[in-house]
Amino acid sequence: xxxxxxxxxxxxxxxxxxxxxxxxxxxxxxxxxxxxxxxxxxxxxxxxxxxxxxxxxxxxxxxxxxxxxxx
Length: 71
Description:
Elements: E1 9-13, H1 27-40, E2 47-51
């Protein structure tokens, strides 16, 4: 598990668009970007998502076993 300390961030998302690529460190920055994108894409909706939690599973460990079967 990655134990590095991260801070919360905001993303701008639009359905059926590409995945968000910019992590905004302040809500006002994401709001401003969503407004800008809405003005240049009037037929689309843009959402500001607040990311404050992360969950991840432990790594999967693969061990190759000896192929010899004694029976």
